[in-house]
Amino acid sequence: MKFGIRIPSIKKRITARTSIKRQVVHRAGLKMPRGYGWVRNPKKYAYNKVYNRTSFDIFNILKKLFK
């Protein structure tokens, strides 16, 4: 588990947003409503919940500084 600041990866950000799997699911209308991640994959939901509370993103810090 990661604690502290997350190191951003521009390559991974772009890849995640432009993947074939994401496009197929989006166009087929198979998306789950927001907040229903625990229904689709409870183990991943629990991991992400802890991860997001114990680490922070450099871009969020920059947003708050230049707000």
UniProtKB/TrEMBL annotation:
Tell me the superkingdom of the source. Answer: Bacteria
Name of the featured protein: Phage protein
